[in-house]
Design brief:
CATH topology: Rossmann fold
Strand content: 5-15%
Bound molecules: hexanoyl-coenzyme A, NADP nicotinamide-adenine-dinucleotide phosphate
Oligomer: single chain
CATH architecture: 3-Layer(aba) Sandwich
CATH superfamily: NAD(P)-binding Rossmann-like Domain
Structural class: alpha/beta
Largest sheet: 7 strands, parallel
Radius of gyration: 18 Å
Number of strands: 7
Number of domains: 1
CATH class: Alpha Beta
Number of helices: 10
Amino acid sequence: MDASKLMFRDGLLQGERILVTGGGTGLGKEMAEAFLKLGAEVIIWGRRGEVLKEAADELMGKHGGKVVPMACDIRAAEAIKENLDEIWSTGALTGLVNNAAGNFISRTQDLSPRGFDAIANIVFRGSFYVTLDIGKRWIEEKRKGSVISILTTWVWNGSPFTVPSAMSKAGLNAMTQSLAVEWGHYGIRFNAIAPGPFPTKGAWERLSPGQSTDGSTRQTTNPMGRVGEMHELCNLAVFLMAPGCDYLTGQTIAIDGAMYQASGGNFSGLAAWSDEQWAAARDMIKASNEKDRAQRTA
Ligand code: HXC
Ligand code: NAP
């Protein structure tokens, strides 16, 4: 991200302590950088400890401040509790970004129950476990808090060929709306961001296998003729996270160049794929999953 394109004054997030799940890569790392640059202490979670450590070192090298990398698998409620106990031993969090996710394109008839669970256990269950544990602590300690969940525009219209993700993200959209009401009187806010295409290695390897992340693909259906730029997403995340917009809660905001209105913003175009194209995509996706798994166990 070009940090000079952040819209906000230095020090805006001084005193904030923000957890970004999946903060070692992609959009999570970009948002972590923006929060850090504006004065927050940031904690980043993911399953690959080395990836997190490299990200934390890189961000602190650029901006100073404090980024704490912690290997934590959000599918495991007990691991979440242990890591939150460790965080809380030096002070409470003030914000959470539910960003960690898993996804891949597949014809739904080719999915097994384990394939469905691989996505739903991260996105739907894991994000809820993290939110619940942190929310209970805030309520117990009478603290305000701000939660942002990173969703997709598919929460409004579904997405063929990524059905476990579409179902899980829609569940988090319901969580956002429900808890904004239920926990509003505690001063805990819930908002969500539905990004359009912001090319990242993790998403592109599994959703557009074989296509470059340089922005040259998937723009033709976008009214603005381009993919998103990271500082645009980060400015929205900072705005929603910052103290100062305390009355804004229960909202899911799309940032997609109006792609969702123009073309549905989902994977309906894959209906034209042949059996051979699906087999090739599956092989490429599984090879990427394998590489990441090796880093988790390294
Ligand atoms: C069908 C597949 C498959 C594929 C895996 N599976 N890939 N089925 N088509 N392409 C099945 C496997 O066969 C297996 O079922 C089951 O899924 C579990 O596979 P594992 O590889 O063992 O899973 P695991 O190691 O737990 O990995 C989880 C993962 C992986 C979700 C599959 O991709 C991951 O860890 N991803 C994290 C990062 C990520 O996905 N980032 C993208 C986020 S982008 P069987 O029954 O065979 O055992 C995003 C939205 C972006 O969310 C929107 C862009 C516009
Ligand atoms: P990404 O780089 O693959 O990010 C996913 C992150 O989640 C990784 O850092 C991964 O780290 C982490 N993660 C996965 N499973 C986890 C688990 N069980 N426990 C803890 N962390 C876990 O992809 P991205 O594109 O940046 O996606 C980030 C978010 O943006 C996702 O919610 C995605 O749905 C959303 N989104 C992205 C786009 C886009 O265009 N890029 C569009 C719409 C929405 P480990 O593998 O090390 O655990």
